[in-house]
Design goal:
Radius of gyration: 24 Å
Bound molecules: adenosine-5'-triphosphate, ligand LQESDW3C
Distance between the termini: 19 Å
Keywords: ATP-binding, Kinase, Nucleotide-binding, Transferase
Largest sheet: 10 strands, mixed
Structural class: alpha/beta
Subunit structure: Monomer.
Number of helices: 8
CATH topology of one domain: Rossmann fold
CATH superfamily of one domain: P-loop containing nucleotide triphosphate hydrolases
Enzyme class: transferase
Number of strands: 23
Family: Belongs to the guanylate kinase family.
Function: Essential for recycling GMP and indirectly, cGMP. Required for normal development of the gametophyte and embryo, in association with GK1.
């Protein structure tokens, strides 16, 4: 047997406040979704704006109501909706009688992205993301010897397409270079702290590289994917091997130098390492290049000789060229029957058409396919339409 949705709310059209127009305690409390110690009440207007659905939070422990910062563009007010609590701090909202580009939404209330935003903003935060069909783009792992130009290529990509790509900020125990900012280039971390976090299972991968510890925390990747951007990881070959073995379905690119002499020249010209460190990095480069070319980890190899040409090849490889649109992934809306019931069955949501003279269409939404997301962004949904008799 399936479970009924957490709740169904009727008549939430614009102008029909249904008890949610109030600043403090909403009157209609049975329409709240309980997650941990907090109830999330979805309805009425967002900060008096009649175009967007509002959210309020009740904390059971403090018995206080708050209006969170709402990230992303949320759904328009609607006739009614079903709300279903999903794992990992998300609420699925399925609207009634809405346009195909406004029918399925996710409210993030306790994801890593939300927790990070809460820390930053110092207040309650939630984020909306719209549900669309299709799969989110795979993260990109870029490896190559030190000084080959990985960081340069990634910076060019992020500068040209800031809304499309996001950088996974690694942790490292090495000291910051003079222009490097904590939390932007790396999370500069004490070795004992990082070792403890590795032990606590917080890292997707880690490795000792040129005498220091480097690692990608699960949260660093989630922060990017939850912001709806395609995640880029700049990691060494050992790290790439670990990611390949993990559940992260990524594409792997290895950047080769035109020659060892050119690699050495670039490292020296960068001027960020001591002579001893340069020698160490060059020694390691040999083994890295061999592993990169022969390990079977990398499906794509780039030669960074001429920077502009290499960048163009990288863009082509990522499906970005002068003819293709670059403002995010092309999205497909979801047409739902005007009148329907919603049932949850394991990781499937069944949306059954109701009403006289209808075709009794059933839409099956596969929750296991959901990834990426928020705020205001899309995530992949796989839908099947079944005709019941
Ligand atoms: N095609 C190129 N031609 C000449 N110089 C380049 C080219 N690509 C990058 N560089 C320069 O080489 C130096 C090293 O590049 P970058 O810092 O991007 O390397 P990296 O692979 O990220 O190194 P690391 O792994 O140590 O972080 C930089 O000074 C950069 O400006
Ligand atoms: N396995 C990992 N390797 C990483 C990570 N972050 C960076 N790196 C690699 O380290 C070297 C040196 O970087 P530098 O900033 O000190 O020059 C470079 O090859 C990076 O790709 C990581 O999280 N995991």
């Amino acid at each position: 047997m399936g479970e009924a949705p957490a709740f169904f709310v009727d008549h939430l059209e614009n102008g029909y406040t249904n008890g949610f127009g109030v600043k403090s305690e909403p009157k209609n409390r049975d329409t709240s979704v309980l997650i941990g110690d907090r109830s999330f009440v979805i309805g009425g207007n967002h900060e008096g704006n009649p175009l967007f659905l509002g959210v309020q939070i009740h904390d059971k422990v403090t018995n206080k109501w708050s209006s969170p910062s709402v990230l992303g563009t949320g759904p328009k007010p609607c006739k009614g909706y079903s709300a279903i609590v999903l794992p990992k701090g998300r609420i699925l909202v399925i609207k009634k009688g809405s346009a195909s580009d406004d029918s399925i939404w996710f409210l993030e209330v306790d994801t890593p992205f939300i927790r990070e935003q809460k820390k930053l903003l110092g207040r309650e935060v939630v984020a909306w993301s719209k549900g669309v069909r299709g799969n989110a783009e795979k993260p990109i792992v870029i490896s190559g010897p030190s000084g080959v130009g990985k960081g340069t290529l990634i910076s060019m990509l992020m500068k040209e397409f800031p809304s499309m790509f996001g950088f996974s900020v690694s942790h490292t125990t090495r000291a910051p270079r003079c222009m490097e900012k904590n939390g932007v280039h790396y999370h500069f971390t004490d070795k004992t702290v990082m070792e403890k976090e590795i032990k606590d299972g917080k890292f997707l991968e880690f490795a000792s590289v040129h005498g220091n510890l480097y690692g990608t925390s699960i949260e660093s990747v989630e922060v990017v994917t939850d912001s709806g951007k395609r995640c880029i990881l700049d990691i060494d070959v050992q790290g790439a091997r670990s990611v390949k073995a993990s559940s992260l379905d990524a594409i792997f690119i290895f950047v080769c130098p035109p020659s060892m002499k050119e690699l050495e020249d670039r490292l020296r010209a960068r001027g960020t390492e001591t002579e001893e460190q340069i020698q160490k990095r060059l020694r390691n480069a040999d083994a890295e290049i061999k592993a990169g070319k022969s390990s079977g980890i990398f499906e794509h190899k780039l030669y960074n000789d001429n920077l502009e040409e290499c960048y163009k090849t990288l863009k082509n490889l990522l499906g970005i060229n002068d003819l293709a649109p670059v403002n995010g992934v092309e999205v497909e809306g979801i047409n739902l029957p005007k009148e329907h019931t919603v049932t949850k069955m394991d990781d499937k949501i069944l949306i059954q058409e109701t009403g006289e003279g209808t075709k009794n269409k059933m839409i099956v939404l596969d929750l296991s396919s959901i990834n990426g997301g928020a705020p205001g962004r899309t995530r992949g949904i796989v839908l099947d339409t079944v005709k019941s008799s």
